Each structure stands twice: as C-alpha cells, then as structure tokens.
Amino acid sequence: MKFVFFFLGAFFLSLVLTRIVKTLAFKFKIVDNPTEPRKIHKAPVPLLGGFAVFFAFWILVFFALFFGFLPGKYVSENFLYGIFIGGFFLMIGGFVDDKLNLKPRFQLIAPILACFSVIGSGIGVEFVTNPFGQAVVHLDSFVYDFNLPFFGAVSFVLIADVFTFVWLSGTMFTTKLLDGLDGLVSGIVTIGSLILFALSLTDKTYQPDVALLAIILGGAFFGFLFWNAHPAKIFLGEGGSVFSGFMLGVLAIISGGKVATALLVMGIPILDVVWVVGRRFFLERKSIASSDGKHLHFRLLTAGLSHRQSVFLLWSLSALFGISSLFLQTQGKIYSLLILGLVMIFLGLWSTQRSKNISSH
Questions:
Q1: CB neighbours (10 Å) of residue 321?
Q2: Could you give the dihedral angle defined by the CA atoms of residues 114, 117, 121 and 126, in that order, rounded to the nearest 10 degrees?
Q3: Roughly how many angstroms between the first and final C-alpha of the chain, as a whole number?
Q4: CB 56 within 8 A of CB 220
Q5: Are 207 and 18 in contact (CB under 8 A)?
Q6: In b/e form, how buried is each residue of 164-183, taking b as 16+ CB within 10 angstroms?
Q7: pLDDT tens digits, one per residue of 33-90
C-alpha cells in the first residue's frame, strides 16, 4: 500500500503542477514555436513541463524522508542531496536555455555540474559483472580523498567516477535527443521506472528504498504524460528532457548497478543516438550538436506510421526488452542487447526503404 500511495500521490501532484506550469509558461512566453521543418507541431506549445515532474518527484521524496519511509539502507541522505542538487542544476540550466536558446557549448554546463553533484555525494559504479564468468570487474581503484562544502569528506574513485560521468552524460544526451515526439520520453521513463521498481523488489536485489524512488518517479512522469501525449499540450523543455535521462541513469546505478537493465529499456534510443552522432561526425562532417529530422522516431513518421503508432512502437520495444531483464542473468542481458541491436538495424533499413517508396510515388 505504501508504494501505491506514493505512486498515486506523485501522479496527481504532477497532473496539478503541470497545469500550473503550462499557464506560467504561456504567461512568460516560454514556448516552442514551430519555426523549423523538423518540428511537427502546428502551433506554439509551452515548455518547462519538466518542472512539474521535478517538483512532484521531490515533494514526495522529501515527504517520504521526513516521515521515515526511506530507511536509508541503500539511499543515504547524502545521495538524495547529491541527486537533488544535480537535478536542480539541470532545471535551472534548462530554464535559461528554453528562454534564451543557448548555444550548444553552454548547454553542457548544467549536465556537467549534475554529474559532479552525483559523484560528489558518493554515488558511483564500483564494479561490473563479467557476463561470461562468475567474477566481477572492480572499478574502485585509484582513490583520492577530498573535503567538499555540504558533503564533507568525499572520495574520488578515478575509474568508477569516470564511468559514472560517462554513463550519466550518455543517458542525459539520449533523452534530450529522443524528445522529438509527443509523450515518447515521458512514456519511456515511466516504463523504465516501473521496471527498476520491480527489479528492486526481487529477492536477489531487495532494495525497498530504491523501489520507492523509482515508483515516485514513474508516478510523476505518468501524471505528466496525460498532458504530454499526442497532441501534446506541454513539452518537457530542455531541463525536463535531460532530467529524464539523469534520473533513469542514477536509479540504474543505485539499484545495484543495473546498467544493463537501463540499456535494455533505452536501447533503441541509445543506438539511435550513437548512429546519429557517428553519421554527423564521420559521414557528414558537421557538428554533432546540429539538428535534423533523421532520428529513428522521425524516420518512422516518414515511413508512413502515424504519430501515435511511432510512439507506441518505441514504447513497446522499451517495455518488452526492459521486462525481459527481470528474468535474465547478466549473460542473457548481453544477448538481449545484441538482439536489440539487430532490431534497431531492421527498423532503420525498413523505415529508410519505406520512405523512399513513399517519396517515389
């Protein structure tokens, strides 16, 4: 009942806050105008929706902390403060970008600060499981101790913290670029949160405090999804889009380093980002920060799928491969990732061919 209460609480709070944020975004003219060909909405849509999710999530988390629902066995107060400060950096940076349309290099400042906040709180991947053996690969080498304001004595673990920085940067960049179709990111984060919730309650990795964070996050994004589903009445905005990947990435780490599970949930978007970045850098010789309509979710539209069909297909793949992670060991997850790669290749080839056939007629 505790989990149901917090899920519904986050859901309804997010519903109400999104309505308020929508009004404020219109009032202060922080909207997304359809001025580029790749933008498929027809009228201005308010931004800043991520603030509704952010506040709904943290209000419920601090409520749980204050009334003793978070025992702190796996999620210490230091962890929570680090995640909150990191998320706050993202929201402020996103607000400034939504208002002023910052250049790409300035958009990197908030995500970098968010990564440092998480690492400074002590969150990190200390080891990874060897998928083809019983041993684990330890990443906790080369430790350096520091005293930081607010956090006190902290240790910088070179390999583990670099891995954490790269992982969180990757998940944030993925959801940022994925946020091109109504409801796509908020739906995938809802799915990912529920899967990590279920995983945290299994006998093997029983972590009720991690499960509580995951179910609150899922409820907050699910509430927002009612406003964000096609046709969207509000968008996440820059802050919300990177906060989405940030939270999934952090939950994957603190839920026992379930990076492979998060990879299965976000596998198609991550592979799409890798392809798009590689294409822009190596083939087209242009900035990886440039925008175009060649992401997989846009190509599904040009291949003849409707907006809702494209989103539902990508949601379904995330759910299918994510749920499979609940029943697979590490080696099985590796094989699932390989299958996911083949699915991505098939979708890419199919959508490209379909688009050519449609354009030729």
A1: 24
A2: 60
A3: 56
A4: yes
A5: no
A6: bbebbbbbbbbbbbbbbbbb
A7: 877 666 677 788 999 999 999 999 999 999 999 888 887 777 888 899 999 999 999 9
The pLDDT tens digits of the residues spanning 94-144 come to 999 999 988 888 999 999 999 999 998 888 776 666 555 555 666 666 666
Q: Are 99 and 137 within 8 A, CB to CB?
A: no
Angle, alpha carbons 238-240-241 (nearest 5°): 65
Sole residue written with tokens 């004595």: 153
**Can you read off the two tokens belonging to residue 335?**
């094989």
CA distance 165 to 124: 9
pLDDT tens digits, 269-295: 888 888 877 777 776 777 666 666 677
Predicted local distance difference test score (pLDDT) of residue 35: 73
Token couple for 161? 């913290």
SS3 content of the chain, % helix, strand, coil (to 5): 65, 5, 25
So where are the chain's domains? 2-259
